[in-house]
Amino acid sequence: MSTVRQRGLSLRLRLALSYAGFLLVAGGILLAGVVLLLVNYLPAGSLQTIEGEYSPGRRDLVEAALPWFLRGLLFLLVVGLAGGWVLAGRMLRPLDPIDRAVRAAAEGSLSHRIRLPGSDDELRRLADGFDEMLSRLEASFEEQRRFTANASHELRTPLAVTKAMLEVARSDPDGIDARTIDRLDETNERSIAIIEALLALARIDRGTLATQQVDLEQVVAAAVDEVPHQVALTCRTVPATVAGDPVLLHQLVTNLVRNAVIHNRTDGAFVDVVLARHGDRLRLTVENSGPDIPADVVGTLTEPFVRLASRTSDAGRGSGLGLAIVTSICRVHHADLALRPRAGGGLVVTVDW
């Protein structure tokens, strides 16, 4: 809700009045100083010369200079107002495109950019900062739009399956068998997994991180033991501690290992988990032998509901939010997440602290 403000003087007029007032005060002080300097060297009264004529005294000079003094102040006022108005207009001209961009953004258009030309100064930095803010907002709203659309699709699919199976069961109550019950249970579990992942992602993005020293070697070992797998899974670690939330770090490693196990091939499959020192940083690497992944697809895998096969397919093999949650956990822990395709097929994920 916008605030209704009482209309006042424009910024340009206020700058012009300020410039004129400053010029008027400075000019008045200068003229007064000149007059006082001249008056100081004149006697208080009129002097009579040898020829009998009178020369002007201090009072005569003051009376003669006062009208010109007032005319000078009036001239300075007019020049100050006119000059201040022109100068203020030139100085404030870059604010016009900024104002148009702000109004366009207020109306919902985030694609407009100011791109203010000129050298680097306060107004240009303000315009560049506003352009950067608009770019981030546009990207954020686009991401939220895709997220909402994908989440709706992900939740609609299992609910539609459940509805269809319930309608079939209602039409033929005696035909309900164990397979139908198992299918309903599987579909329900998928819906629960998606909702829980969405809630986890929301909590991570809005929560504050309570950090403590976490034994990362123990976290990795526990996560590897926890994830069920039917592939050759190897784990190599070194003693290491990082500052962070132990629950979130455990979820990070678990999601990476589970993702590597799920997205794998049937023959010769393996998952390799390595925690090691890399220079002055600590690096966790999770590598698997999955399918070939195009390089342009790897960059999209951290988006919500993006899977290796397709964006919203492959029901029952995960919520599609595993790497999105990992990305959020890395962000709140100030860790660097990198993904690259593995030569021969698969994915290599590294997290650097």
UniProtKB/TrEMBL annotation:
InterPro entries recorded: HAMP_dom, HATPase_C_sf, HATPase_dom, His_kinase_dom, HisK_dim/P_dom, HisK_dim/P_sf, TCS_sensor_his_kinase
Segments crossing the lipid bilayer: 21-42, 68-88
Record keywords, A-Z: Kinase, Membrane, Phosphoprotein, Transferase, Transmembrane, Transmembrane helix, Two-component regulatory system
Kinase is among the record's keywords: yes
Chemical reaction(s) catalysed: ATP + protein L-histidine = ADP + protein N-phospho-L-histidine
GO function term, MF aspect, one: kinase activity
SUPFAM superfamilies: ATPase domain of HSP90 chaperone/DNA topoisomerase II/histidine kinase, HAMP domain-like, Homodimeric domain of signal transducing histidine kinase
Keyword Transmembrane helix: yes
Domain of life: Bacteria
Class of this enzyme: transferase
Localization, UniProt: Cell membrane
EC number per UniProt: 2.7.13.3
Ranges where the Histidine kinase domain occurs: 150-353
UniProt domain HAMP: residue ranges: 89-142
Protein name: histidine kinase
Protein's organism: Aeromicrobium alkaliterrae
